[in-house]
Amino acid sequence: MGEKLPVFSSKKFIRAAKRLGFKIKKGGKGSHTRLVHPKSNIILSVPKAQTVSVGIRHQLIKNLEKIGISREKFIKLLSVGLLLIIKNLFKD
């Protein structure tokens, strides 16, 4: 199954998805953010939450795998985002 799926917030997921080419789509419910991938037209609906629940995390990853993004690649993207934030904190 690969690496264990980390816990992440909706903001963290959206930031990583944008690096993969997803764009925020207007419309929808106020408690969710809709993302669309321009090449595959896959739409992801991400609930605004500090911690995205286990079931939703797995479903989001499943949808990413449909467009060829592996679980491992996505986990690396999440950690790269964290490393960039840490790097910017100590930047003078």
Describe this structure in words.
This protein is α+β, with helices and mostly antiparallel strands. The protein has a single domain, classed as Hypothetical protein (Metal Transport, Frataxin, Chain A). It has three helices and three strands. Strands 1-2-3 form a three-stranded antiparallel β-sheet. α1 (10-19) packs across α3 (71-89). It is globular, with a radius of gyration of 13 Å.
> DSSP strand (E) fraction?
5-15%
Backbone CA Rg? 13 Å
Low-confidence stretches are none
Biggest pleated-sheet summary: 3 strands, antiparallel
- Could you report the average pLDDT, rounded to the nearest whole number? 83
- The CATH superfamily is known as Hypothetical protein
Structural features:
92 residues; alpha+beta; Metal Transport, Frataxin, Chain A; three-stranded antiparallel beta sheet; 46% helix; 14% strand
List the helices and strands and how they pair.
Layout: H1 10-19, E1 23-25, E2 32-36, E3 43-47, H2 54-66, H3 71-89
Antiparallel strand pairs: 1-2, 2-3
Helix pairs in contact: 1-3
Short description:
With 92 residues, the protein is an alpha+beta fold. It has helices at 10-19, 54-66, 71-89, and strands at 23-25, 32-36, 43-47. Helix 1 (10-19) packs across helix 3.
